[in-house]
Description:
CATH class of the domain at 559-772: Alpha Beta
Helix content: 40-55%
Largest sheet: 9 strands, antiparallel
Mean pLDDT: 77
CATH topology of the domain at 559-772: Alpha-Beta Plaits
Amino acid sequence: MADSTAVVDTRIDPLAERRRRRRAWLRIGLPIGTVALMIAIILAIAVYLSNANRRDVLALSDDLLTALDNRIAKEVSAYLDPSSRILRIGRDMIQDGALGNRQDLAINYATIVLNVVPQIENLLFADPDGNYMLVRHGANGGIDEKLIHTTGGPRRVTWIYRDSSGKVTGQEDDPTDDFNALTRPWYTGAATTDDLFWTGAYIFFTDKKPGVTASLRYRGADGRASVFGADIALDVLSSFLASLEIGRSGKAFIIDSSGHLVASPSGSVMVNQNGGDPVAQKLDEIGDPIVTRAFDQYRVEGAGRHVVEVDGQRYITAITPLTSAGHDWAVLMVVPENDFVGFVARHDRSALVLSLLIVAIAALLAVLLVQQGLRADHNGRLLRERQHALDRQSTAFATLAADATLFDPGRSEPPRKLTETLAEVTGARRASVWRLIDGGRRLHCDDSFDRVTNGHVDGLELHHNELPQFFAHLARGEEIEVADAARDRRTAEIHRVLMQPLGSRALLAVPAQYGDTIVGAVWLEDVAHMTLARDFVRAAANMVAPRMAQAAEIATVRATAEAPTVDDGDRTAVRHYENELRERGLTPDTVNAEIYSDIAVMVLRFTDPLAMAVRTSNGTHCVSDDIVCALQDVANRADIPYLKILGQDAVAAAGFAGGDGAAAAVVADAAMAIRERCIALFEDIDHPLEFRIGIDCGAAIGCTLGEGPKIFNLWGEAVSTANEMAASALPGTVQATESAYRKLRQDFLFRPRGRFYLPRTGEARTFVLASRL
Length: 773
């Protein structure tokens, strides 16, 4: 079933709308679609070439890593194999008796070995009795010997120093040396096997250098088993690993099966553990998550090459056992994948940039084509709109010309047809005609039409003291056109006083000039068609200027208020409760309450209950709390005797003592102080002005009620009228009745607001309290 509530705009031609959409598609969609297709093809080619190049480069990287594995294995083998050969030759010579048991022959052999094989730091000899001999490089090409004797007397540690010719240059005993070869791993390991034994990485006792020891068991002439060993420093292997170039940032390590470092490119393979002797560092202690991840994968999957991902970065890892050195060593290499394929990505980006440059040129041409088409459509649309605007303006001029008395200076009715026509032709939310009076110190609104509410307002006045910036620019005959009146210093005051309460934002103000004199202005707020509105508004301002210049000046608000329509005494009598009592056949003696014939009442009303609970900028109070504190402070300083808070309303009153003529001024001053405080608070929390204030001067009734403690309550005409003023006031303003205006007009500045109906009084004028004179 069709929806009967659907709204159809009969002004739109469906066929024309379809043609417009088809034309827009051809002008915009076709060029954009072509460029998008080019981009898609280029991206597809780039992705394909990038993947292909990546596969080829990774295949080449496997060959590179294999070559590096072989190189490291050969280097390690070349570094360690001479030591193993030297040990086997020495063992065979000792067991065959070639060296005999003479110490000097063993020292000569060690000297030859140290000179021929530089990677050997020390040669070691130890027997089961704990006797020990160490031969190492000395100063200036000499040889140092360390001898420990444990048989045939007390334990003795002796150092003998020889020069390069073998001559003894010094000798000393070291009673503090507690070295025991029988407890060292190179001795205990070799004593249990006839094969060559390799220790793990450790710190040499004498030289305090990191290294490994290769040792062999041999039997002397007495048939007892002794151990012959060689200390091999690892710093050369670490330097070799540091010299390798594996990509841009790859690293290689030599490790044992338990994950301890044998050689590292950083050179540091030892750490102190629990304050004791240094021990070989483990891979997970160097703080490199990639190396740790690679070793964990090696323990699970075994040797080989793998790709791991850490923190979104891919790494190639390779672990290869070293079968020619040590019994459980392996080479671990880690290199970022981008070190191999990074240049592929860079080349891909370069190619992509060049391709996109072509696309950019094509896109630029497409944009120019689209702009040209859209400009043609836009110009055509502007021509149609301008023609339509001219037709509307011609119709408007005809409508204005049909009313012969519209611009007659002697006409007393507001120019309502003019403001309606202005709003209709320009699409403005509100159109107003303002006339300068009182020597240019006040702007009087002849008429204002709101297109949203379809209502007219006239009689409103703005004073020079309220809007000094705007009056200064208007006096110079300047047109004012602003999109945001609140942010322009020329119109910020107008926005706060008049536009913000009604919800408008943009303003076009065209001065009306008669000869060389500025006589008024025509305002448009929130214009829909600004470009097409200026000429028509200027023409309207020129048309209405003679009426403003030649019309009799409208009486000022003060003079109007002083007109003898109703005498003050008569009005007071009209609004006095004694008149109402007499009408009901009562006398004041029969009323058990105080009747105050002339009291000033102020009502503050919050229009948004949520705004009352919003915290202020310091975060310690809510808005309503600060305002109530301000009310109490103002009441204390002004000596206002009555202040009550009920829900969203606050009521203050003064003038309970008879003949207190200053009560109205006290309440008015309090209202302005509270208004400024509320404006500051709501601006501080960046919230609309959700408050209104009403003032009235008249009669009221009050008495004490309840049982201890009693409360004083005030009600009656002045209270209800002030409440009505607050309910109908513009947001953020103080609205006063005519009776309050009469009492305050000598000391305060007011703007006429319009007429308002009061119960038992009828229609009365209302005013907006602006400031103190």
